[in-house]
Amino acid sequence: MTASRAAYAFAKLKFPGRDKIFLCYLSTMMIPWYVILIPQFFIMQKLHLYDTHWSLILTGAFNVFGVFLLRQNMLSIPDSLAEAAKIDGCGPWGIYVKIILPLCKTSLATLVVLTFNSVWNDYMGPMIYLDTDSKKTIQLGLATFRRQFDTDYGAIMAGTTLSLIPVVILYAVAQKYIVEGIAYAGVKG
User: Fold this and answer.
1) What's the topology of domain 2-188?
2) What pTM was estimated for this model as a whole?
3) Contact partners, residue 52, CB within 8 Å, separation at least 6
């Protein structure tokens, strides 16, 4: 949701320096995650979020790629729709909720699937931020089947198969919107 609000601001709201700020924001995609790893860790410690799932949620909530993807989709929405809503008495928040978000369902579904897949398969983040065994993610659990002198391949394969179930279910639910988005993008040409 944070990505859609930022994308709306960068795509539809007019303010000084908007394009330069977006370019600076977009350039943060070039910074490797490992560079900001230690500062993020210290911030999570200072906020007393170490060893909580909130540390994973907050670090994953702000996604530059998501803002870029949604902004590009929102730029394709005609400004005349927002102007008509403004004439009818809708403010910026109403335009965002009632006009822009419903028209971005396909991009939102694509972003949800991609983000969920990325977070679900993340190994490094949970390894750094979570310490209690009961809070660890499935990827860290699968890594415990590997030991120094032997590996339980059967358990790893069974766990991997089970870990695919939520991803497949999410894709099955969002598939209609993703296919619509691809078809819409292909027709736009």
Assistant:
1) MetI-like fold (1.10.3720)
2) 0.82
3) 135
